[in-house]
Structure formats: structure tokens, C-alpha cells
TrEMBL record:
Sorted UniProt keywords: NAD, NADP, Oxidoreductase, Pyruvate
One of the record's GO cellular component terms: cytosol
InterPro entries assigned: D-isomer_2-hydroxyacid_DH, D-isomer_2_OHA_DH_cat_dom, D-isomer_DH_NAD-bd, NAD(P)-bd_dom_sf
SUPFAM superfamilies: Formate/glycerate dehydrogenase catalytic domain-like (SSF52283), NAD(P)-binding Rossmann-fold domains (SSF51735)
Coiled-coil stretches: none
Domain D-isomer specific 2-hydroxyacid dehydrogenase catalytic per the UniProt entry, residue ranges: 67-182, 217-295, 358-490, 524-603, 671-747, 810-1100
Source species of the chain: Cinnamomum micranthum f. kanehirae
Domain D-isomer specific 2-hydroxyacid dehydrogenase NAD-binding: 894-1069
Tree of life domain: Eukaryota
UniProt GO molecular function: glyoxylate reductase (NADPH) activity; hydroxypyruvate reductase [NAD(P)H] activity; NAD binding
PANTHER family in UniProt: 2-HYDROXYACID DEHYDROGENASE-RELATED, D-ISOMER SPECIFIC 2-HYDROXYACID DEHYDROGENASE FAMILY PROTEIN-RELATED
Protein name: Glyoxylate/hydroxypyruvate reductase HPR3 isoform X1
């Protein structure tokens, strides 16, 4: 029913009720009717034509004066259901004869008082009955099939980023109260405000289902934080310590529920919550059993003195003084109590707790002064770190204190004068730290002299690979060139400088020193190619100087026949062809011991750095972490985890193990495209970890300029561009011998399997051949391969796979290390049946690779993903889901239609956004009734028939279009879908997608449907010309749409996202547990029929 028709009906009802009383009044052209609140525009407009409406809110007079002024003339009141008609109103209008309300309910009218006065009362009667029934059914379908939640899932972009909408909405017992307010946990997490921290295990459990706002973690003051989230907070969760009073509720106007984790709710302003309509819930009986147990335990403890006995034994009194005394006065408190004011290292605490009675002040709920007072006569020893001040005030609170033990070497935090005055002994760490501090001091000295931490940062930042060696990092002891060997060959330094050939650039300071004594030939500075340059100087070069990076091989020596000496600036000479030099009589010399002292210093510095983590400490301080996080952590895993990029998912156990030590970047989990993701992390990625499935090529390496290492979890590395890695200086490592034993075991197993035919025997038994044909044959030719092999190209639902595996030999292509074409070739003669979902294309290329294929079983109702023509040509049977989805899709189609007409999803968004409470009812959300509508169904197959059955119950007039007219169907048939649309208020599309039905619903059909028409699509996206549909909706040429399918799934046209007259669903009309159970029965039934040579259940 439209707003106009409702208003007309309501106006008629109101006029009929009012007319009986007010219509008899003389002296006025139109009878007077008093309004207490504004009516909607349509109702006001129609009634104004028949009655004179008095509107108190338009008068400058106060309301009581306005009513007094019209007391004698008002005989009828018209109210909207929000305005109370109480005794006070009735007393001020003595001539009143009738009260008419526009609502169905009359709880806002004082009926006993009206009866006492003889005032007639009339309501809206049955005007709203059909529309309320429509809306109720729509809401039921929405809740059961989660249509509004699906609509939000599509509009928020989650379908394209996260994939299909989740099927099940899992709930746990802990969040039952929260689910009263927000049950749709699997879409964006609902927001819950915490006023105080929860216990960790409660916080952890609830954080998985809800987004917890924690004011104490925000840099904003609490009042600003509450103001920032005022429109989004619907639920407050209190731990019993945070009061929920009127001030909090004033700041959060949209709160609908206050939950407390405690059994009591004396900290909640319950009257104020009731006044606002806010639901309040406590922990109920959650703690009942535990509290009862604990209460009984305490009672027994008090009567039987269990805790006191425990202290007696732990304090060593049993062995010293005999049996536990009967009277409390006889019990001595522990004599070995140690007080800790603040935490010390956990391993220290653990060790002390094993031998002493440790009192931990910070664990008590009492303030420290009260805690010290409570244990003043027990504490004889105080253990403290160097950060715990032990001043005179603390000492005064501990009259029994005899000793202060400091875990630090220094004691400047202890008031030694007061301790001496009191006779309190003081101890420190003694020499415990001496060696470690000495090591660290030497490490710091070496770090300062040899710039180890600076070098560490230079390498980590990637500058070494981009800028090369940097002289700014040289230490005080710089090596100079060794010119002794040069002098052996050329001693006449006064004449022209002797010539020395340099193959690669030297470090600048070395180049500068040698240039003063020798003429250096540098091929890279010459415009000649290197071979021509060497030929030009072949007669004059007698000495070659190499920097360790340029190889001196036979080819070089052949081009320089007069060379007598080869020198290298490095200690090693593996880059020189020593054998060739000896053969030619060429002298070879290295840097000797020039680097020995410096390298030894540096090695010791590195050793101390690694053990004492000096560079890591340096970064910790420079990064500002010391001031932000406190002392540097002792264990390596506590430092910020290094970043590792994964290109493909790892096996779960490898991922879990590595995640404990490294921060794994997983591009597939990011909403960003892969190239943007890599660009975002380009500066931070130093290591790539590949699984062997993800190629590491030049393109990847170009996008990550700071990569230093590529690791692969496989033994082979043919997926890595090794030459490119070498060119860039990127280290490459494989799994080494990690798999050696397992692979050897497996190889041995395969060898035994082939010779002893274990797998073949296994298949023989599983296939039922042992019981049917007797003992396993000895010869391979006699063995029959499995006759019930089913091929899956891609995963289907896990419980489908499990059910099929119990009865058939299932081949899973994606689990094989072979490429799919090779896998299909390997099993070409075994596969008789292919099982596929609607997302798996079965084209002619796939079919050609399976020469033995006899049947394709699709888990979807549609078969547009299968090359039916090729199947027919080959005689391959094809089956689909049959009627498994029919009822669920029909429910969903009717739900979409009701949602589109009654604007349920749009209303849901309006309420969730808080607009109802701020803007009130808006006419833009008015709906239209379903009852009596003309509905055209495109495709009256199994699904279409179920839709028709449901719509008949709504009193709809049904017509249909199909390939042929159905003799047994009583509905009007239209051979043209255009003509069907022209005679329909709503069009439901549920036919199969074929070449003939592609863009079946085009612009002409949509225009024929009209400006008030609604189109629903639960078939395939391409049945509708999506661009024309969007254009018609934008231009207002049709009234609305409900879409479960789209042309380019999961991409939805952006224009549809913001439209309130469109309902969007991520292709989930079939997603119910019931439909999957029915589908499994159809699939298994088809397979059983095929292998038994019986007729198929749902042939296409």
C-alpha cells in the first residue's frame, strides 16, 4: 500500500468518526477538529479539505490558554499515537464527544476516563493490517536470510575484499547479552564501550567478536573520546568498577544496552536507564557455582584453619615446633617474609618464592602505606632494585626491618644514614656485574673506535648496496697501500713514475697514496674498450694491482705478456689464477698482516656486540623506545620483530613457527593490489620468503630495492631469478638438508611401493575388488585402476569433500605439485566424473584433456560455466543442483521483493546510523504494500514455481514468461518479456543464462516496467543489462531493484552502493544449511546413479 493510499484510507476512517460528532455543529462552514501533534503531510492535506484543523503549536498562546479559548467549540480530537490524551486534556475540553487516533493501538488514550465521560474513541481499524503483515514477513525473512546484513556487506566493499559472505553466524555464551543488541557479528564488528579494563581472559574472548573502545588507551581526554563516539556506541560493558550514571548516558544518546560482568549492578543508575529505555543486564548465574564453591571453601578454611596451617608448614614451624597449635593466639606468623615494593626480574621472583614467603606490594588492592602497615611486624627483609627508592618514610613504616637487599651495584637509592641509625644491614650486587660491565665497556670502546653500530645501521638501511663503501665510516686505524711489492719490480723512482695497471677502482685514500709514487692505468676512465686499452699498454705494463673484486685470470695474463707481478689489496687471493701465474713466473703478493690487528679488533667488537647486543641497544635508544617502553628487553624475541615478505601462503605449522620470531607481510590479506602493497613496504623489506610456488623475478626485485636475502622453503630454487639476484648482490638460500631425511624416507617408501605395489593393493581393497575378485593379482596388467575416481579441479565445501571421500576415490588437482595440465594427463584414463562448483569453468580445453570423462556434476543450479555443446558432442552427461536450492532461492527472492517494496534494509541503516533519534520519521523511507501487486516471473521452472506459490499467499496477481507455455499452470503466459513487464508492478528474474537470455532484461523491458516498478534478480547477473539498469535507477525510470547477482562479481557498480531503493546481496540466495544438505543428497544421488548405470536425478 502506498503512502497516498494509506493516507486516503486513514482520512476516510478519521472523517467517518469525526463526522458523526463534529459534522452536526452549526455556525461554521467546516467542523472543528483539534490536533495534538502534527500529522504527516498527506493526511493533513486531505483532512484539511473537510475539517477546520486546530493546531496549538502554530498559535502564539501557551497550550493551556489555547485549549481554554476553544473549550466550547472542540468536539473532536485527532491524535497520531505519540500524543497522550489524558484526564487533564479531557477536563479542559468539556464539550468533547470523540477521540480519533491514526494508530491501531489506543494505549496513549485514557479509555476509562473517556468511558466515564461518554467520549467515543476510534482507532485505525484494519487499515494497517496488510502492510504490517507484509513487513513482519519481510523482517522474518531478513533475520533468517540476513538480507540487510548482506546489503551492508556489499555496500561496505567487503564482498570484493573478503570474498563470499560468511554462512554461519557463530555465537559464544560470553556475548549473549551483547547479541540482544547486535547479532550480526560477522560483518563489521559492533562497537562496545568499556569504562574500565576487563580481566585479560574476558577482554581476549570479547575482542574476537566486538570492537572494544578503551578510553584509557586514547590520547584524548575521556569526555572528548565519548563525544567522538557518541553516535556509534550502542552498548556499554562495565566491569563493576566503573559507574554508569546519568552523565555517561547523556553523552551517549544512542546507547541501547548496559551490560556488567558482575552479578550486582549497584554501580549502574538503573532508574535512569529505565527512564531512557536502556536495557540493563548483569552476569546472571554465570558466577553462581564458582561463588558458591568459594564461599563453602572460605567457611571450611575459617573453621578448620587451612590457610593458617599452610603458612605454618611453609614457614618451617612444623619441623621446628611440632604439631599445629589449636588456638589462633599460639600461631606464629611466617618468620621468613621478604617484601618487594615493585616488581623485579621474573626469574628472580620465581627463585625467591621457592625459598621465602614473598610479599608483593603491587599485587595488593590496598594502597602501599596500608599494605606496609598490615605487614609491618612480618617484614624483616626488603628486596629492591636500583629503581626503588628506600627512603626514611618507607623505613619508618617497617619497624621490624633488619636488612635491605639491593639487586643493583649502586645503593644511592637507599637512605644509608637512616639504615645505619636503625642498625639495618644493607647489601648490594657485589661483583656480580663486574665482568659483564667490563665486557660492555670494551664493546662500547670498540664500537666508538670502529663505528660498529654506525656500520650496522648503514647496512640495515640499504645504503651499502646503493652507495657502496663510505669513508665516513672508517676507523682511526686506516690501512694504506702496500707498495713494497711494487718497489721490487721498479726501483727507479726518480725517473718517470712506473706504470701500474688497476683493474677495478681502489678506495679513494688508497688511490691517492699510491698515485704519488706510481702512474696508475685505469681502464674504466678510458674511452677505449677494455681489450683495446690493454692491447695499447701490453708492452709497458709489468705490474697489476687488484682490489680483490677484479679477477686476474689467464685471459688478462695473455693480453699482458710483460707482467712480472700481481698485487692484491686483500688478504685473500682466490680471485687470482695462481697456477697460471706460477707457470708464467709471475710474482703474486697480498696485503699480508696489514689488516690483522684491525680485523681482530673488529671481530672482538662484533662478538661483544652480538652477545651484549650493543647495536640493538643503540637502535633502541635512537628509536625513542627507551623513553616509551622502559628498559631494553633481555630476550631477543622482545625487540621489534624483523619484517619478512611472503609471496604465497605458507603451510600453517611453518607460518605459526615463523610468526613467533618475525613479522610476516602477507599481500593476499591486504585490500591493496599487490603492486601497491609492495610499494608501500618497499623501504622496509629486507628478506623475501618464498614457498617455491611464488616466482621471485626481476619485477619483484625492482619493486623492493632494499632486499638483501631471498629464502625459499623448498630444496630447489628454479623459481628464483638467480642471475638477477647475483647481479644485485642479493643472497639466496634454500632449505638445504632440512628435507633430506624425510625425502630419503619418502623415496625409500616410493621404491618399496613400486616394487611391492602397496598403493595399488590399497586401491584394490578400497575399491571393493578384494571381496569381488579375490586375491590381488601379481601382474600389473591384471590390476584394474580405480573405477570410481572423481576429479575436483578446485576446492568445494569441506563437508562435501569429506562425504564424497568416504564413498569415492577423490582426485584433488590443487593438492598436486604438478601443473594442472600435467595432473590431468597423468589421470586422464582414470577420471570418469568431474565434480565442479559454479565458479569452475569447464571449457573445451579441459574436456579434451579428459578423454575418459563420462559425466560432469555441477554443485550449482546454473550450468553457464560448462561447455554444454562440447559435452553433447562427446556424449558427456551433465547434472546440476536440481531442485536443491529452489525453496531457499524462492524465500530469498520474496525477501528481496518485500525489502525493496517496504524499504527494510534502508530502514535498518536509518536506525543503525542514529538518524531516527535525531531526524525522526522520514517520508523518504515510506514503503508500498505487496498484497495485490501484479508480479511477473521470468522463468517458471522449479524456482519460479516456488516463488509463485509464496506470492499467491500474499494475494498477488501472477503472470509469467518462459520458453514455452506450461499447460498445467493457471497463470497468464506472455511470450514476450517486454509485454510481461508492461503488465507487472514487479519483475522477478530467475531463468537460466544462455546465449538467448543474455541481457534479456534490457532498457526497453525496464522502461515498460515503469517508474514504480521493481526488478528482482536471483538468476545470473548477465540476464540484466547492468549498465542500463543503473541508468534507469539513477534517472528514476524504475522504482527500485533487489539484486543477489551481478555481471562482474564481486564488483558492484558504485552508483548502486548509495541508493536506498536498491537492496544488494553477495550472491547468497542459496546459502542455508538446509540447502547444502539437500544439495549433497542430489550430488551423491547423481553419482550413485551414474556408477550404477541408472537414470540421473537432475540431468541438464
Amino acid at each position: 500500500m502506498t503512502a497516498n493510499s494509506i493516507s486516503s484510507s486513514m482520512a476516510a476512517v478519521a472523517a467517518q468518526g469525526i463526522g458523526k460528532v463534529a459534522g452536526k455543529e452549526k455556525g461554521e462552514d467546516m467542523p472543528l477538529v483539534l490536533l495534538l501533534r502534527p500529522l504527516n503531510f498527506f493526511l493533513d492535506e486531505r483532512l484539511s479539505k473537510r475539517f477546520r484543523l486546530l493546531r496549538p503549536w502554530e498559535s502564539p498562546l501557551p497550550r493551556d490558554q489555547f485549549l481554554a479559548a476553544h473549550a466550547r467549540s472542540v468536539r473532536a480530537i485527532l491524535c497520531v499515537g505519540l500524543a497522550p490524551v489524558n484526564a487533564e486534556i479531557l477536563e479542559s475540553l468539556p464539550c468533547l464527544g470523540c477521540v480519533v487516533t491514526t494508530s491501531a493501538g489506543v494505549d496513549h488514550i485514557d479509555l476509562p476516563e473517556c468511558r466515564r465521560r461518554g467520549v467515543a474513541v476510534a482507532n485505525a481499524g484494519n487499515v494497517f493490517s496488510e502492510d504490517a503483515a507484509d513487513c513482519a514477513v519481510g523482517l522474518l525473512l531478513d533475520v533468517l536470510r540476513r538480507i540487510s546484513a548482506s546489503d551492508r556487506y556489499v555496500r561496505s566493499g567487503l564482498w570484493s575484499s573478503r570474498g563470499d559472505y560468511p554462512l554461519l553466524a557463530a555465537a559464544t555464551a560470553t556475548e549473549k547479552g551483547l547479541e540482544r543488541v547486535e547479532e550480526d557479528e560477522q560483518v563489521d564488528l559492533p562497537i562496545v564501550l568499556l569504562l574500565k579494563p576487563l580481566k585479560p581472559f574476558i577482554d581476549e574472548g570479547i575482542s574476537k567478536k566486538f570492537r572494544l573502545l578503551k578510553p584509557w588507551e586514547s590520547p584524548l581526554p575521556r569526555d572528548q573520546l565519548l563525544a567522538a563516539h557518541a553516535s556509534s556506541v550502542r552498548v556499554i560493558l562495565s566491569s563493576g568498577r566503573g559507574p554508569v550514571e546519568g552523565e555517561i548516558l547523556d553523552r551517549l544518546p544512542h546507547v541501547g544496552c548496559v551490560l556488567t560482568t558482575s552479578a550486582g549492578y549497584d554501580h549502574i543508575d538503573v532508574p535512569e536507564c529505565r527512564r531512557r529505555g536502556v536495557v540493563v543486564a548483569n552476569s546472571g548465574a554465570a558466577y553462581a557455582v564458582n561463588v558458591a564453591d568459594y564461599a563453602i571453601g572460605l567457611l571450611i578454611d575459617v573453621h578448620r584453619r587451612i590457610s593458617a596451617s599452610d603458612r605454618y608448614v611453609r614457614g618451617g614451624l612444623w619441623s621446628a615446633k611440632g604439631d599445629f597449635p589449636l588456638l589462633e593466639a599460639q600461631v606464629e606468623r611466617p618468620t621468613n617474609s621478604i617484601l618487594l615494593l615493585f616488581p623485579i626480574l621474573p626469574l628472580f621472583e620465581e627463585a625467591l618464592s621457592r625459598k621465602y614467603h614473598v610479599l608483593r606490594a603491587w599485587e595488593s588492592s590496598m594502597p602501599t602505606p596500608e599494605f606496609l602497615a598490615a605487614y609491618a611486624r612480618d617484614v624483616r627483609v626488603l628486596v629492591c632494585s636500583g629503581l626503588t627508592p628506600v627512603d626514611s618514610a618507607t623505613l619508618q613504616r617497617l619497624p621490624g626491618l633488619e636488612c635491605v637487599v639491593s639487586t643493583s651495584a649502586g645503593v644511592d637509592h637507599i637512605d644509608l644514614a637512616e639504615c645505619r641509625r636503625r642498625g639495618i644491614a644493607v647489601t648490594n650486587a657485589g661483583d656480580a656485574f663486574s665482568q659483564d660491565v667490563a665486557d660492555y665497556a670494551v664493546g662500547l670502546l670498540l664500537d666508538g673506535l670502529r663505528r660498529i653500530s654506525a656500520s650496522d645501521r648503514y647496512v640495515r638501511s640499504g645504503q651499502w648496496s646503493t652507495q657502496g663503501q663510505l669513508l665516513g665510516l672508517k676507523g682511526p686505524a686506516a690501512a694504506t697501500a702496500t707498495e713494497e711489492g711494487l718497489k721490487r719490480v721498479e726501483e727507479d723512482e726518480q725517473v718517470d713514475l712506473p706504470i701500474v695497471l688497476v683493474l677495478k677502482p681502489l678506495r679513494p685514500f688508497m688511490d691517492e697514496g699510491i698515485s704519488k709514487k706510481f702512474r696508475l692505468l685505469k681502464p674504466w676512465e678510458s674511452p677505449l674498450p677494455r681489450d683495446q686499452f690493454l692491447a695499447a699498454h701490453s708492452s709497458s705494463v709489468r705490474v697489476i694491482l687488484s682490489s680483490g673484486r677484479g679477477p686476474v685470470d689467464g685471459e688478462i695474463l695473455d693480453s699482458l705478456p710483460h707482467v712480472g707481478c700481481v698485487l692484491t689489496t686483500s688478504a685473500g687471493y682466490d680471485h687470482i689464477d695462481i697456477a697460471e701465474c706460477r707457470r708464467r713466473g709471475v710474482v703474486v703478493a697480498n696485503s699480508g698482516a696489514a689488516y690483522a690487528v684491525n680485523v681482530a679488533d673488529y671481530a672482538i667488537g662484533l662478538l661483544i656486540d652480538v652477545h651484549r647486543r650493543i647495536s640493538a641497544s643503540d637502535r633502541y635508544v635512537r628509536g625513542g623506545l627507551w623513553s616509551a617502553r622502559g628498559d631494553f628487553p633481555i630476550l631477543d624475541e622482545q625487540v621489534d620483530l624483523p619484517i619478512v615478505l611472503l609471496l604465497k601462503p605458507l603451510k600453517p605449522f611453518i607460518d605459526e613457527g615463523l610468526s613467533n620470531k618475525f613479522r610476516l607481510l602477507k599481500p593476499w590479506e591486504s585490500p591493496l593490489p599487490r603492486d601497491q602493497f609492495l610499494a608501500a613496504h618497499a623501504s622496509s623489506v629486507r628478506v623475501i620468503l618464498s614457498t617455491g610456488l611464488g616466482p621471485v623475478d626481476g619485477k619483484i626485485l625492482n619493486s623492493l630495492p632494499h632486499v638483501e636475502c631471498v629464502l625459499t622453503t623448498s630444496a630447489g630454487y628454479d623459481h628464483i631469478d638467480i642471475p638477477e639476484c647475483r647481479r644485485r648482490g642479493v643472497a639466496v638460500a634454500n632449505s638445504g638438508a632440512a628435507y633430506a631425511v624425510n625425502v630419503a624416507d619418502y623415496a625409500m617408501g616410493l621404491l618399496i611401493d613400486v616394487h611391492r605395489r602397496i598403493s595399488a593393493s590399497d586401491r584394490y581393497v578400497r575399491g571393493g575388488l578384494w571381496s569381488a575378485k579375490g586375491d590381488f593379482p601379481l601382474l600389473e596388467a591384471q590390476v584394474e585402476r580405480p573405477t570410481n575416481s572423481i576429479l575436483l579441479l578446485f576446492p568445494i565445501l569441506p563437508f562435501f569433500e569429506e562425504a564424497l571421500s568416504r564413498k569415492y576415490h577423490v582426485l584433488r588437482a590443487w593438492e598436486s605439485s604438478m601443473p594442472t595440465p600435467e595432473f590431468l594427463a597423468a589421470y586422464a584414463r582414470d577420471v570418469r566424473v568431474l565434480v565442479c562448483s559454479g565458479l569452475t569453468p569447464v571449457d573445451s580445453a579441459t574436456l579434451q584433456r579428459l578423454p575418459g570423462l563420462e559425466c560432469v556434476v555441477s554443485t550449482s543450479a546454473g550450468v553457464d560455466h560448462i561447455d554444454l555443446a562440447e559435452c553433447r558432442r562427446r556424449g558427456i552427461a551433465v547434472t546440476n543442483a536440481g531442485d536443491a536450492f529452489s525453496q531457499d532461492v524462492a524465500d530469498f527472492a520474496v525477501g528481496l521483493l518485500l525489502d525493496g517494496l517496504r524499504r527494510i534494509s534502508a530502514s535498518d541503516r536509518y536506525v543503525r546510523s542514529g538518524q531516527w533519534s535525531t531526524q525522526g520519521q522520514i517520508l523518504g523511507l515510506k514503503g508500498r504494500k505487496l498484497s495485490g501487486k501484479r508480479v511477473g516471473i521470468v522463468g517458471l521452472g522449479s524456482i519460479g514455481s516456488e516463488i509463485a506459490k509464496r506470492l499467491e499467499a500474499f494475494g498477488c496477481r501472477i503472470a509469467y514468461n518462459s520458453r514455452t507455455k506450461k499447460a498445467s499452470v493457471p497463470f497468464p503466459y506472455f511470450s514476450s518479456v517486454h509485454d510481461l513487464a508492461a503488465e507487472s508492478d514487479a519483475l522477478i528474474v530467475c531463468c537460466a543464462l544462455t546465449d538467448e537470455t543474455y541481457h534479456f532484461i534490457n532498457r526497453d523491458v525496464l522502461l515498460a516496467l515503469g517508474k514504480e516498478g521493481v526488478v528482482i534478480n536471483v538468476g545470473r547477473g548477465a540476464l540484466i543489462d547492468e549498465k542500463e539498469l543503473v541508468r534507469c535507477l539513477v534517472q528514476g525510470e524504475i522504482g527500485g531493484a533487489g539484486l543477489d547477482v551481478f555481471e562482474e562479481e564481486p564488483h558492484v557498480p558504485q552508483e548502486l552502493i548509495t541508493m536506498d531503493n536498491v537492496v544488494l546481496s553477495p550472491h547468497r540466495a542459496v546459502l542455508t544449511p538446509e540447502s547444502f544438505t539437500a544439495l549433497l543428497e542430489v550430488i551423491v544421488g547423481n553419482l550413485e546413479a551414474f556408477f550404477a548405470n541408472k537414470p540421473l536425478l537432475s540431468p541438464v
